[in-house]
């Protein structure tokens, strides 16, 4: 089940955390780049809104899934 976090401030934003990643669902910043970033889901990735000075980074011990495959 998704969990939403409402972030107040000069540029309010809403960040949604789902089982498969996180993303900005709304933002009051002028450029809206954070909304265009889409969902981030791998360890070390971050969702960022520079005008609001918000950074949400994926951290953890394990990384599941494939990073790439060659054949």
Give a short synopsis of this structure.
The protein has one helix and five strands. The protein is mainly β and 71 residues long.
Key terms for this structure?
71 residues, mainly beta, 1 helix, 6% helix
Structure, described:
This protein has 71 residues and is mostly beta strands. It is 6% helix and 37% strand. The strands form two sheets. It has a three-stranded antiparallel β-sheet, with no helix packed on it. A two-stranded antiparallel ribbon has the order 4-5. The radius of gyration is 14 Å and the shape is globular. It starts with a strand and ends in a 14-residue tail after the last strand. The model has no long low-confidence stretch (mean pLDDT 88).
Distance between the termini: 36 Å
Run of helices and strands: EEEHEE
Main beta-sheet strand count, sense and barrel state: 3 strands, antiparallel
Q: State the helix count.
A: 1
Mean pLDDT: 88
Percent of residues in helical segments? under 10%
Question: Low-confidence parts, pLDDT < 50 over ≥5 residues?
Answer: none
What is the spatial order of strands in the main beta sheet?
1-2-3
């Amino acid at each position: 089940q998704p969990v939403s976090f409402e972030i107040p401030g000069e540029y309010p934003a809403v960040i949604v955390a789902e089982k498969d990643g996180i993303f900005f669902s709304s933002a009051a910043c002028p450029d809206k780049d954070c909304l265009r970033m889409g969902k981030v889901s791998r360890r070390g990735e971050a969702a960022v809104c520079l005008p609001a000075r918000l950074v949400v980074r994926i951290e953890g011990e394990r990384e599941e899934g494939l990073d790439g495959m060659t054949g």
